[in-house]
Design brief:
Multidrug-efflux Transporter 1 Regulator Bmrr, Chain A; 3 helices; globular; ten-stranded antiparallel beta sheet; single chain; alpha+beta; about 220 residues
């Protein structure tokens, strides 16, 4: 059996590769482009472990089911659809001759991290909205699965780590995070969240991930 790749097949592979890279750059920007991240105040720092105070945030989120990676991809697609035009904005732009006027889908800047929370077999995948937006200024999603929410100001215990953030890695880091929370005399106040900061082409050893959990001072 001849396994050599013909020129037509090579051309198809190159086209698919180019389309994939183009989509990824559209979603994440080029490596030189900075992405807005939520601001926070560091309350405590102990190696890879930190305690941070975050202000109230506005997020877009979806609930999806499946394995961690599958759910992350599904949720990301839904949320990316919203921020890249899948919304009901009716903003019109007047143009000179020839005169044309049409509804313009509003595009929302990408922020980091993308966070993922598991709850009874369902994953909540969430994007933080850019700080320039108020809730009333955000366009309504076309897809009812996408929900806009206000999150209150919260203190989080955070453990940073690198790698691909597979299920075993996340489980191990979650155990480590909760042990550090206990050691620092804090009390868990909610679900553990996985936050991933890098685009998919980032080498595994350069990726920045975090597991985060709301905390309160122990009584």
């Amino acid at each position: 059996m001849d396994t050599a790749l013909g020129p037509v097949r090579i051309s198809m592979i190159l086209k698919r590769f180019s389309l994939g890279i183009g989509l990824a750059i559209t979603l994440f920007g080029s490596p030189a482009m900075a992405v807005e991240e939520p601001v926070f105040k560091t309350v405590l720092s102990d190696g890879a472990f930190e305690v941070r105070d975050y202000p109230g945030l506005i997020v877009a989120e979806v609930a999806v089911t499946g394995e961690q990676k599958e759910a992350a991809r599904s949720g990301f697609r839904l949320l990316a659809g919203y921020i890249f035009g899948g919304n009901k904005s009716r903003q019109s732009i007047a143009m000179t001759a020839p005169v044309a006027q049409e509804p313009v889908s509003e595009k929302i800047a990408m922020t980091a991290p993308v966070t993922q929370i598991q709850n009874a077999g369902t994953w909540i995948v969430r994007f933080t909205m850019p700080s320039a937006y108020r809730m009333e200024a955000l366009p309504e999603p076309n897809d009812p699965k996408v929900q806009l929410r206000r999150l209150p100001a919260t203190r989080f215990a955070v453990l940073q780590f690198s790698g691909l953030a597979g299920e075993r890695d996340v489980d191990a880091k979650t155990t480590e995070l909760l042990a550090a929370v206990k050691a620092h005399h804090l009390r868990v106040g909610g679900q553990v969240t996985l936050a991933q900061y890098n685009p998919p082409w980032t080498p595994w050893f350069m990726r920045r991930n975090e597991v985060m959990v709301p905390v309160e001072a122990a009584p």
